[in-house]
Write a structure and sequence with these properties.
The protein has 137 residues and is mostly helical. A two-stranded parallel ribbon has the order 1-2. Helix 3 links the parallel strand 1 and strand 2. It is globular, with a radius of gyration of 16 Å. The protein starts with a helix and ends in a 19-residue tail after the last helix.
C-alpha cells in the first residue's frame, strides 16, 4: 500500500499535499475494492487524473477500483446539490491529519499502525487483489 501511495504522489498525478488522497486510493486498490466513493473532485473523482491513477495502479500490479461520487454510482438527478456536514468534518479531519504529518506517507502510516496496535477493535486482514500474470498494463 505504501509503495502504491508513493507511486501516486508527485511526479505522479497526486500532489504531495494530498498524501491522504494517495493513501485512500492505495488502500482501496490493494484491498480490492470495486468502487471508491468520494466527493473529492480535486484529486480522486477527477476525470483528468483518472487515466494516470489507473495506469499507475496497473503498473504496480493492481486492478484499480472505479473512483466516482455516490451520485455517479446511484445515477441520481444531476441537478441535485449535496452538502453533507459529515463529509465536511471528515475532510477537515483528513487535512488536519495530513498536515500534522507534513504530508509524509511514511509518518502517516507509522501513526496509523501505532493506533491500530493500541486499539482493541478488530481489524481487516489485507487480501490484495492483484492483476493475474500476463494481464498487467
Amino acid at each position: 500500500m505504501i509503495a502504491l501511495a508513493k507511486a501516486l504522489l508527485e511526479p505522479g498525478p497526486i500532489p504531495v499535499k494530498a498524501a491522504t488522497d494517495a493513501t485512500h486510493i492505495a488502500v482501496a486498490t490493494v484491498m480490492g475494492a470495486d468502487y471508491l466513493l468520494t466527493w473529492n473532485f480535486k484529486h480522486l473523482a477527477n476525470a483528468a487524473l483518472r487515466k494516470r491513477i489507473n495506469a499507475i495502479c496497473r503498473t504496480e500490479g493492481f486492478d484499480p477500483p472505479v473512483i466516482c461520487t455516490p451520485e455517479d454510482l446511484l445515477m441520481n438527478d444531476a441537478d441535485t446539490v449535496y452538502r453533507d456536514e459529515i463529509i465536511e468534518e471528515v475532510r477537515a479531519r483528513k487535512e488536519a491529519l495530513a498536515a500534522a504529518h507534513d504530508y509524509d506517507i511514511d509518518r502517516l502510516f507509522e501513526t496509523l499502525r501505532k493506533r491500530q496496535s493500541a486499539s482493541d477493535r478488530p481489524t481487516l486482514e489485507p487480501r490484495p487483489r492483484r492483476i493475474p500474470e500476463g494481464k498487467a498494463a
